Amino acid sequence: MFSDFQFIIAHDNYQSMGLWILSWRSKDSISMSNLTVFMPSVLTLIGIPGLESVQCWVGIPFCVMYLIAMIGNSLVLLIIMSECSLHEPMYIFLGLLGITDIVLSSSIVPKMLGIFWFHIAEIYFDSCLIQMCFIHTFQCMESGILLAMALDRYVAICYPLRHASIFTHQLVAQIGAVVTLRAIILVAPNLLLIKCRFQFYHTTVISHSYCEHMAIVKLAAENVQVNKIYGLFVAFTVAGFDVIFITLSYVQIFITVFHLPQKEARLKAFNTCIAHICVFLQLYLLSFFSFFTHRFGSQIPPYIHILFSSLYLLVPPFLNPIICGAKTKQIRVHMVKMFSSENPP
Asked: What pTM did the predictor assign?
């Protein structure tokens, strides 16, 4: 209605009223810029709001977890790459999971420790967007890899004679490509919606320890409804789809295992799946807690949310190599060989 009214006025008295409209718009832009920041080049990450005085101590366990995650995942990846006997779908997916964990943890921890220990809080706006894309892209990829691992176990246990013919190396490569493309296609619009839609921002201070999508969107002084809706769409599409099919896969696996006649066969099948289930549970339990507290937990102190959202990105890379090394016999045996001059019994 307002646009139609503008059109009628401009049509009746184009020159005079056109100048008035331009003057009105320029005044509006000036007042807008006085209240907000126009296209900031640098943002400030404050770390963990409410715990600024103890952030240096919080950084110590974060650093230890990061180092263990880097060393553990690198060792698992090195063992899988160097041992031809481990070039099977289950271990290839573990290797992809290790690569994802290395990139994901490296995307946040160095900057986070810079904030905690050296008070380097500034980050370029474009660098912040790149960090956001890396975080959410590799989160999506990790979820897709867990789904692929669940489907691999489903075929291996429910259709053991057909596993080798179904999960070929070509199929594994195609699954890896689809998982990567899905993550890029779903996450890229978040970057474009922020970069193309927002020009004015209430503040340049991000109340977080890393550049998370909603933390950046909340800075904008313009309509953010589209960004929120798309963010929810991506979250529910990825998590909802993957969780449903992972759950269905393991339900079918358990049904098949319970019908196995031999107790030893049942225990072996359970032992094969237990590591994947642990990885699956610790990832999604932390992610759902972080997701719902961020959007609906208004009564929860901000530092609790920030701590859990940071742990959500750090705990899976930290625990995954430990769980895989402890529960996967082949990796455990080759790891012992690597650190011992004698062959294990």
From this structure: 0.84
User: Positive or negative, the Cα torsion across 237, 239, 240, 244?
Assistant: positive
- 201 phi/psi in degrees, rounded to 5: -130, 140
Q: State residue 206 phi and psi, 5-degree precision.
A: -100, 120
At 116-165, the pLDDT tens digits run 999 999 999 999 999 999 999 999 999 999 999 999 989 988 898 899 99
Task: Work out whether the CA dihedral 82, 88, 90, 92 comes out positive or negative.
Answer: positive
Compute the distance between CA of residue 247 and CA of residue 264 in angstroms, rounded to an integer: 24
CA dihedral 66, 88, 178, 147 (to 10 degrees): -70
Measured distance CA(208)–CA(131) in Å, rounded: 13
Q: What are the tokens at 219?
A: 């800075």
**What number of helices (H) and strands (E) belong to the chain?**
13, 5
